[in-house]
Amino acid sequence: MATWSNFNFQNSASPLMEQIIFFHDHTLIILIITTILVSYLMMSLFFNKYINRFLMESQMIELIWTILPAITLIFIALPSLRLLYLLDELNNPLITLKSIGHQWYWSYEYSDFNNVEFDSYMIQFENNNNFRLLDVDNRIVLPMNNQIRILITATDVIHSWTVPSLGVKVDANPGRLNQTSFFINRPGIFFGQCSEICGANHSFMPIVIESISIKNFINWINNYS
Q1: 33 found inside a domain
Q2: CDD domains of this UniProt entry (predicted)?
Q3: Rounded to two decimals, what is the model's pTM?
Q4: Number of neighbours of residue 20 by Cβ within 10 angstroms
Q5: What is the mean pLDDT of residues 76-102?
Q6: What band does 106 get if pLDDT is binned at 50, 70 and 90?
């Protein structure tokens, strides 16, 4: 989860989030190099005394400053396209979870099991026993090291189901079913929130995922049913 003074990404809990962080770092390096180069050229132009009154045009320099940015953009675009296709890929999911956005709470249905459905409301902050504005009464319980498919929709207005540490952000639109998948590679509790302004209590519909082993997940399903 996010903590005070943390300006970086949250620690990833899925391979997709790792790839997103790698792409961010890759793009940031290119931007830093470009910024330093352009700043150096501008400063040298300000302070040197070179003058050429007869230089009207130079096709070579124009060719260079057209081709170099194009090559730079290719170095950004190719990993970006690869990542977009990776995010859309769906590989034989073990479990399908359906998430329904309401004003202002989430409902969840485990479509592969009978009678496993519940509403998830934010709970009140109590003496540091939970996280303020982030904890819920009914958490999503999912097995780690398995491919999970999630179907997302809404009943009233547009919401957005977002869990940063998993690299998932999908809009929940009324009358439309959106789909994505993720793979949780470690146990833990992962927090998210609605990231689409959806009304007065938009800030008060958090998402909590509890990642456990497949054996404990089966026991949880049996006990729930």
Answers
A1: yes
A2: CcO_II_C
A3: 0.84
A4: 18
A5: 91
A6: very high
Tens of pLDDT, residue by residue over 166-196, are 999 999 999 999 999 999 999 999 999 998 8
Quick one: 100 and 73 in the same domain? no
Integer Rg of the chain from CA: 24
Residue 146 has pLDDT above 80, yes or no: yes
122/168 Cα distance (integer angstroms): 20
Closest CA to 96 of 116, 124, 120, 66: 116
Q: In terms of domains, do 213 and 108 share one? A: yes
The CATH number of the domain where 121 resides is what?
Answer: 2.60.40.420
**Is residue 214 in some structural domain?**
yes
Does residue 116 surpass a pLDDT of 90? no
Amino acid code (one letter) for 7: F
Domain C-terminal end among 66, 88, 110: 88
Q: At what angle do helices 15-47 and 59-88 cross, to 10 degrees?
A: 160
- Domain shared by 34 and 138, yes or no: no
Structural domain range at position 42: 15-48+57-88
Are 139 and 163 in a shared domain? yes
For CA atoms 212, 213, 216, 221, the dihedral sign is positive
- Banded model confidence at residue 225, pLDDT cuts 50, 70, 90: low
Average pLDDT (114-135) is: 83
The three-class DSSP label of residue 223 is helix
Number of residues that make up the chain: 225
Tokens 């793009």 identify what position? Answer: 27
pLDDT at 54 over 90: no
Counting the structural domains of the chain, the total is 2
Instruction: Give the integer Cα–Cα distance in Å for 219 and 213.
Output: 10
